[in-house]
From TrEMBL:
It comes from Pseudoruegeria aquimaris. One of its GO terms (biological process) is L-phenylalanine catabolic process. GO terms for molecular function: glutathione transferase activity; maleylacetoacetate isomerase activity. Signal peptide: none annotated. This is Stringent starvation protein A. SUPFAM superfamilies: GST C-terminal domain-like, Thioredoxin-like. InterPro entries: Glutathione-S-Trfase_C_sf, Glutathione_S-Trfase_N, Thioredoxin-like_sf. Residues 12-78 form the GST N-terminal domain. It holds the Pfam family GST_N_2. CDD domains: GST_C_3 (cd03194). Gene3D superfamilies: 1.20.1050.10, Glutaredoxin (3.40.30.10).
Length: 290
C-alpha cells in the first residue's frame, strides 16, 4: 500500500499544489485522488479521508489520515528523514519551519484578494494597502531566510525544501496578478515559475477540466510571465515517431506535432499536458531529443 493524497483542481487549489510538491519534489511515491471544487465530487472524495474538511489530506500506508498540509510535511520528514524535505542543518531547519508556519497561518489579505489561478495573468490589478503589507512581509521574510541560512539562492534555506513548496502558490499569485515586489523577491518568484515540477503542475492545470467561474476576474489579460512553452499543437492523423506513450508505455492513440514531427500518447490528457508545456516533461523531452 502506498500513500494516498486527496487534492482539488490543479489550476486553482493552492493547498493542493503544496501537498503535491511535498511528494513530487522529494521523490516520494504517492497515488493522487482529485475532487473538483464546487461539485458533489469534492465532499464525496473527502468522505473517504475523515476527519479532513479540505485538501490536501493524506492517508498513510497504514491507514492513518493526516488532514493538514503542515502536519503532512512534518510527518513525511519524520518518515523520510533523508529525502530532504527539511534541511539537515539544525539552524536552516529551524528557519524552514518558521517560514512554513507563517505561510500556513498568515497572508490572509493576499489569499483573499488574489486567489490562485494558473490559467491566466492580469496586467491591471491594483493591490490595496492590506495586500501591500503582505507583500512587504514576504520580502522581509525571504530576505531574512536567505541571509540567516547563508543560501546562495534561489531557494530560501539552501536546497529546495518544504518551505519552498509552501511558498510556490505565492509565486503563482505574483505571476497571475502582476504583483510588484523587490528584485530579490522577484528572483525567488521566477525560480518557482521556472521549476519543472511547478511547470508540470501548471501544465496539467491548464487542461484539467473547464474554467471555474468562481475565479474569473474582470482584469486585462496578459501573457503568463513564466517560461514560454514550445510551439506544440494537438493534431489528428499521421504517423508518430513512437508507438508507446512516453509516460505510461501504453499504445498511442492521440498525437501532437512539434517542429514538424509527430509524437503519440495513450490518451488526450497525456497529449494535452505535453502540448501545454513540453519542456516540463523529462520523459517527453528524452523522446524528442532521441
Amino acid at each position: 500500500m502506498t500513500y494516498l493524497l486527496a487534492l482539488a483542481d490543479r489550476a486553482y487549489s493552492s493547498w493542493s499544489l503544496r501537498g503535491w510538491l511535498l511528494f513530487e519534489k522529494f521523490d516520494i511515491p504517492v497515488t493522487c485522488r482529485f475532487g473538483r471544487l464546487y461539485t458533489d465530487a469534492f465532499p464525496a472524495m473527502l468522505a473517504d479521508f475523515s476527519p479532513a474538511r479540505t485538501v490536501p489530506a493524506l492517508r498513510t500506508p497504514t491507514g492513518t489520515v493526516i488532514p493538514d498540509s503542515l502536519a503532512i510535511a512534518e510527518e513525511l520528514h519524520s518518515r523520510h528523514p533523508n529525502a530532504g524535505l527539511l534541511p539537515a542543518d539544525p539552524a536552516r531547519r529551524a528557519v524552514a519551519r518558521a517560514l512554513m508556519a507563517e505561510m500556513h497561518t498568515g497572508f490572509t489579505a493576499l489569499r483573499n484578494a488574489c486567489p490562485m489561478n494558473l490559467r491566466v495573468a492580469y496586467g491591471d490589478f491594483e493591490p490595496d494597502d492590506a495586500v501591500q503589507r503582505d507583500l512587504r512581509r514576504l520580502e522581509e521574510l525571504w530576505a531574512w531566510a536567505l541571509e540567516t541560512t547563508g543560501s546562495d539562492g534561489p531557494w530560501l534555506c539552501g536546497d529546495y525544501s518544504a518551505a519552498d513548496a509552501f511558498f510556490a502558490p505565492v509565486a503563482a499569485r505574483v505571476a497571475t496578478y502582476g504583483l510588484k515586489i523587490a528584485p530579490a523577491a522577484q528572483s525567488y518568484v521566477e525560480a518557482h515559475l521556472a521549476d519543472t515540477a511547478f511547470r508540470r503542475w501548471r501544465a496539467m492545470g491548464l487542461v484539467d477540466g473547464a474554467d471555474q467561474p468562481f475565479y474569473a476576474r474582470d482584469f486585462v489579460p496578459v501573457p503568463w510571465p513564466g517560461p514560454a512553452p514550445l510551439p506544440a499543437r494537438a493534431v489528428d492523423g499521421g504517423t508518430p515517431e513512437n508507438s508507446t506513450c512516453p509516460y505510461s508505455g501504453k499504445p498511442v492513440t492521440h498525437l501532437l506535432e512539434l517542429d514538424g514531427r509527430r509524437f503519440g500518447f495513450c490518451n488526450a490528457f497525456c497529449r494535452d499536458k505535453t502540448v501545454a508545456d513540453a519542456e516540463a516533461w523529462p520523459a517527453f523531452m528524452n523522446l524528442y531529443h532521441s
